[in-house]
Amino acid sequence: MSATAPISPTVAEAPARALVEIRRVRKSFGAHEVLRDVSLAVPEGTVTVLLGPSGSGKSTLLRCINHLETIDGGRIIVDGELIGYRQAGHNIHEMTPKQIARQRRAIGMVFQRFNLFPHLTALENITEAPIGIGGVPRARARARANELLDRVGLAAFAGHYPAQLSGGQQQRVAIARALAMDPKLMLFDEPTSALDPELVGDVLDVMRELARDGMTMIVVTHEIGFARGVADQVVFMDGGVVVEAGRPEDVLDHPQRQRTRNFLESVR
Ligand code: ADP
Ligand code: MG
């Protein structure tokens, strides 16, 4: 086995079908190969935590799943649908723009920066896409937004503008906004790393509850406690490859690779 071969690229005992299958994905920016032969499977209803040092390709991988980047090789299959890829400069099995738009609507994404519209209230931020893109009638979208605000602990803040909310509250609105499109998959890219430490817990609690409700999630985070408590699978990436993957108790407590051990020591 080569030094970079993953110990266990998939969750061996997972009974659920894979909602996301990533097979031998490659992605370069110019001459820089950012993803080199990445494979992983995310069973439906499970949580995968992606760990790795800055620059290891975590955000790029999430962005490829969500069609924000195209891949140069390999396959990404989301809910049975192949995402297009390029080989030798040709698009292969490219989904039509309509299919891509439909699939992107089914994938919620939450970024490090909350990206709320500053001129819209919390409620309006949440109803914007369902009304504008989803064609949901205004009254129904508003009722659902209020439910979602309640779910993220912000029932009393519907009329607040982002500037009137703390970073943690804004991030919870961003999660509610993503949920408003009824996604089948949620991608989180370091959702708490821009927050003051005292605000992190509430956001993680919302994510924990989502996981408990059976949402399929891929979460890039350095919150090891969250990974330990919530993840079904922990994937450690470095230098564009999956170095090690498996159950949290294995990867976090008994890492097999020196690179994983070094990283875990640096974030603890
Ligand atoms: P991570 O999220 O693990 O920190 P990223 O996926 O953001 O890593 O980045 C991986 C590497 O790809 C970094 O070296 C970064 O500079 C590079 N990269 C990311 N996006 C682009 C881009 N659009 N153009 C050029 N290089 C990029
Ligand atoms: Mg990143």
Automatic annotation (TrEMBL):
Which reaction is recorded as catalysed by this protein? a polar amino acid(out) + ATP + H2O = a polar amino acid(in) + ADP + phosphate + H(+)
Q: Transmembrane residues, as ranges?
A: none
Enzyme class label: translocase
E.C. number(s) listed in UniProt: 7.4.2.1
Q: Does the keyword Nucleotide-binding apply?
A: yes
Domain ABC transporter: residue ranges: 20-264
According to the UniProt entry, its GO molecular function terms are: ATP binding; ATP hydrolysis activity; ATPase-coupled polar amino acid-transporter activity
InterPro entries xref list: AAA+_ATPase (IPR003593), ABC_ATPase_HisP-typ (IPR030679), ABC_transporter-like_ATP-bd (IPR003439), ABC_transporter-like_CS (IPR017871), MetN_ABC_transporter-like (IPR050086), P-loop_NTPase (IPR027417)
- Pfam families per the UniProt record, alphabetical: ABC_tran (PF00005)
What are the protein's UniProt keywords? Answer: ATP-binding, Nucleotide-binding, Transport
- What protein family is recorded? Belongs to the ABC transporter superfamily.
Protein name, please? ABC-type polar-amino-acid transporter
